[in-house]
Write a structure and sequence with these properties.
Helix content: 25-40%
Shape: globular
Radius of gyration: 16 Å
Number of helices: 5
Mean pLDDT: 81
Strand content: 35-45%
């Protein structure tokens, strides 16, 4: 899997990346030695390979992760609370068409293994009428930070679009726009001449 972007944003670490339809290129992952990028890679891989597989397949799977808080005190049990999203896209000409995807906020448990970092468990916030109670239980004293991030649709969309743009640039895709079902296409902030 390729790391397309790691952005710092709004009291949180944000990452958008990956392509589940292309061969892995570990050179990008190996070039980053920080624990942050390593556990972000594990989160992204989990979103694509475990969560994303339950959505309709498409050409590209791009998770967008906004980490609310991380407890790294035990490298064998890193805790990462976050607002986790994964979207699957089909490339049609110069437009990435959103095929499927969704939101999966919660707490990821990550362990250091011989192969690198791996998500070992995921406490996901419940849908429907149990959502608020579940979110408050999972996020605890981090709930207000989560709520501020999760409820800021403008910032979340900006993060997603910038992450997609970085992904497109990193993979040399022809996409210049992204289009969600029922919405007008959005131009990606890309200069492919660089």
């Amino acid at each position: 899997m390729l790391v397309a972007a790691v952005c710092i944003g709004l009291m949180a670490v944000t990452s958008c990346k990956t392509d589940n339809a292309k061969p892995a290129d570990n050179a990008v992952e190996q070039a980053t030695d920080s624990i942050e990028s390593t556990y972000l890679t594990a989160i992204d891989d989990y979103l694509v390979n475990e969560i994303g597989k339950d959505y309709s397949p498409a050409d590209y799977s791009i998770p967008c992760v906004t980490v609310v808080a991380v407890d790294e005190s035990n490298p064998d049990s890193i805790l990462a609370w976050g607002d986790y999203w994964v979207f699957n896209y089909k490339l049609s000409g110069d437009t990435l068409l959103t095929e499927s995807g969704g939101s999966h906020p919660g707490l990821m448990h990550i362990a250091k293994t011989a192969e690198g970092y791996k998500v070992t468990a995921f406490d996901v916030v419940a849908d429907g009428t149990d959502n608020l109670e579940s979110a408050k239980k999972i996020f605890g004293d981090k709930y207000d930070d989560f709520h501020a991030i999760n409820s800021n649709e403008k910032k979340r969309e900006e993060t997603r679009i910038n992450g997609i743009a970085e992904y497109v640039k990193a993979h040399g895709l022809s996409a210049k726009m992204v289009k969600d079902f029922g919405w007008d296409p959005i131009n990606l902030p890309i200069d492919n001449n660089k």
